[in-house]
Amino acid sequence: LQVETLQKSSEEKYKKDEADLKKEKQSFESKVSQLETDLQAERKKMDRMKATQEKETKNREHELLSLRTKLRSLESNTGITSKKIQEEYQTKIEKLEEDLSREKQEYEDLTTKYEILEEEHVGTKSQLVKDKELVY
């Protein structure tokens, strides 16, 4: 009678532990799935931002080149360059160079943040896998 009671108690504990482990496994799998979904969303966002950034950078570089060409053309065609026009174009060139430099820095910062996020994701996923293995 005592052996049967012990056996039932052990079976109940085993079933409870098994149910707890299944819940924990599902929780880990859910976390991994959510992290992967989040990472995919961040990757898509990063790709869109990267494409936009590259397009804007290309447009600014083209505009900068165009202004420099116009400035050279004015200087060569007039012989005596109008100081006001030269200063205006020079100011525009400097502003575009600053904008381009700032956008390149923002792009580098964004790339760095993305790399950190991806490293964190890999670390978290690795830890979840380790935890999952420890549970089993």
TrEMBL record:
Residues 9-28, 40-65 have a biased composition (Basic and acidic residues). Residues 86-127 form a coiled coil. Residues 1-70 are annotated as: Disordered. Keywords: Coiled coil. It comes from the Eukaryota. This is Uncharacterized protein. It comes from Timema tahoe.
